[in-house]
Amino acid sequence: MKAEIYYFSGTGNSLQIAKEIATKLPAKLTSIPDVCKSEKIKSDASVIGIVFPVYYGNLPNIIREFSKKLDLIEGKYIFVVANFGGGAGVSIREISKIIISKNGKISAKFAIQMPQNSWLKTWENREKLFEKCKLKIEKICKSVSSLKKVRIHSNIIFDLLQITIQPLFDHLVKSHFIKITKESKQVPLQKLIYLTDRSFIVKENCDGCGLCSKVCPTNNIKMENSTPTWLHRCENCLACYNFCPKKSIKVGIMQNDFYYLNPAIKLSDFIKKKSNNSAILGDHLN
To answer: Are 1 and 47 a contacting pair, CB within 8 Å?
Structure first.
């Protein structure tokens, strides 16, 4: 069985999951931002895994883009792993639609709860979540190794509830993004997400180190006169905000002064992944 794991990660949760799955299967590990530059994305693997975070109860824009570019996937065993802080929402349903439109099929669907990275949950037990994550990864690898067709719910009742309320949630998110981007109501939510970096502010204590530009997985930050400038293709991954050593970035899309980075991920690995088109990373990372 030849397997390849594609992943997107901003603060480390999805990368941790992808790396552990890739190690146990084993599988080749590939960064989605690196391959998304191509017009078509092809893999010679018979088993394809896609690991991604859930944003606003749905898919990150880059996962939509990546899924639409997948080519020659008919007949392949495809599995997805959605990592979420609140719930998987409609993310798995949405990526399934895209894969079907590409003549493929998702054989196994998984969801893993990880620590929240955008606002403080005082009741959250991170250690317990990491322990449960490892157990679920074991189950995922067993299912994938035997090519089982399966879906593992985090909480089926909660999942169904999320699907029902997603239109309302989309409306609330869009209203907030219209406010911070100063765009019209006619602009679709997916485009508004790209433009949310208009709300990012650089504080006076910024020393121009450029680390924010180096860790941005989609190269959305350009340094101008030792000051970061965002290019309005923001994925909302929060890498720049969380990795800044001086805490010099203020954003309008999350709870400010709350920071999170997956403890299993190293900065050096996060930067390293950007320098390789498709590489198995070091021992730790985002």
So the answer is: yes
Q: What are the DSSP E strand ranges found in the chain?
A: 3-7, 28-31, 47-53, 77-84, 106-113, 150-152, 201-202, 221-224, 227-230, 249-250
Cβ atoms within 10 Å, residue 22:
22
- Measured distance CA(22)–CA(132) in Å, rounded: 18
The DSSP code sequence of 122-163 is TT--HHHHHHHHHHHHHHHHHHHHTT--EEE-S-HHHHHHHH
Contact status, residue 37 vs residue 62, Cβ threshold 8 Å:
no
Q: Which two tokens stand for residue 3?
A: 């397997």
**pLDDT for the residue numbered 155:** 62
- pLDDT tens-digit profile of 65-82? 999 999 999 999 999 999
Q: How far is CA 283 from CA 47, 58, 131, 143, 269, in A?
A: 23, 29, 18, 24, 8
pLDDT of residue 273: 60
Residues 98 and 41: their CA atoms lie apart, in Å, by 14
Tell whether pTM > 0.85.
yes
* pLDDT (mean) for 41-46: 98
